[in-house]
Amino acid sequence: MSKDMKIGVFDSGLGGLVITKAFIKAMPQFNYFYYGDSAHLPYGEKTSGQILKYTLQSMRYMIAQNCKIIIIACNTATSIALRYIQQRFLPEYSPDTKVLGVVIPTVEVATEVNSQNIGVVATSATIRSHIYKTELHKINPDLNVVELAAPELVPLIESNNFEYAEDFVGEYCNSFKNCGSLILGCTHYPLLKDIFRKYLPDVKIVSQDELMAEKLKDYLRRHNEIYTCLGQNGLRDFKVSSLNKHSQKVAQNLFADIPLLKA
Ligand code: DGL
Questions:
Q1: Atom of ligand 1 nearest to the CA of 44
Q2: Is 67 among the catalytic positions?
Q3: Catalytic residue among 67, 74, 179, 229
Q4: Is 15 within a domain?
Q5: 229 and 1 Cβ atoms separated by less than 8 Å
Q6: CATH of the domain at 59
Q7: How confident is the chain (263 residues) per 10-residue block, as mean pLDDT?
Q8: Which of 31, 136, 156, 207 could form a disulfide with 161 if both were Cys (CB 3.0 to 4.6 A apart)?
């Protein structure tokens, strides 16, 4: 059995680097491989067929890069493709690889509040899938889940337009005033979490960069068969399917010393 395998983090673009940063802070010893399918961003406005196709292409590529476990940081890809990957793709293609998503850990944290009302803000495809509502209702069928698609936010964050993003966030927050918690169901939204918190000071804002590292740590603690295959040389390899100056700058702001390369 190989002992130098990597933790893979997948996203449709660069948003997943925020979670990767949290992983590396909590578990710096491991070797990480990041892959952003930026050539096909945004997934959130694509059809389910397109999202599944691009996610599967990415999984094949990441498995070939020696990833033992892959965290799909992209909420849209988790919503549309994770079940297929776990139930159909992996058993045939790579039964020893583990692929996990972000929805279940997020739902676990969101339901820690004592409230019947939970909000979800995400891309159009994630909201259309109703995955958060479905998983929340598995925990408590009586929950009132307020779902809202926010197609404007990803392009505004990608283009560094945080001022306009704030106008939209302010507007969206009116829908969540009565919620006990609000799930930021998109890789990019942790970058807006302070704005959400400003408009909704009494609501628990559930931001995946603050919860996923602990969940992964706990998972690895419970799955020795994966843990023992992971290399612990602190190596990082960050790749995207399409590279431009802007994305290099975004990556550099998060990781000054790790180059972002084209796959
Ligand atoms: N990564 C996507 C998500 O978390 C947001 C960006 C996109 O639409 O591709 O849903």
A1: 8
A2: no
A3: 74
A4: yes
A5: yes
A6: 3.40.50.1860
A7: 90 95 98 97 96 98 98 98 98 98 98 96 97 98 98 87 93 97 97 97 98 98 97 97 88 92 96
A8: 156
